Amino acid sequence: MSDKQNQIHAFWAEIKDALKLNVNYAKFTAAEKLTLLLTTVTFALIGFVLISLFMFFLSIAIVRCIATGTGLIWAYFIMCGFYVFLLGIVIAFRKQLVINPIARFISRLFFNP
Fold it and tell me: TM spans, by residue (predicted)?
């Protein structure tokens, strides 16, 4: 009887060790994925800020060029119309431009080994 109890005890200890290892592996994997996700979000935010600054100064330069022919107020209206047009395109194609790339990134991140 004692031999069977030792075998059961050893088997139970192995199961507990395997479960602990699986939990630790899941924690490390989650930490790795979360780190990659937060790094990507941080780089995206930095890129967004830099591109926004670039677009701001480029817009001012384009307005100055357009203003020589149309006047400053109309140049700003033209630039505003361009950005409204761009916003309309982004809204119209939001699934292809925004939703699908984010969904692909998240699914690749969490479901591919």
Answer: 34-61, 73-93
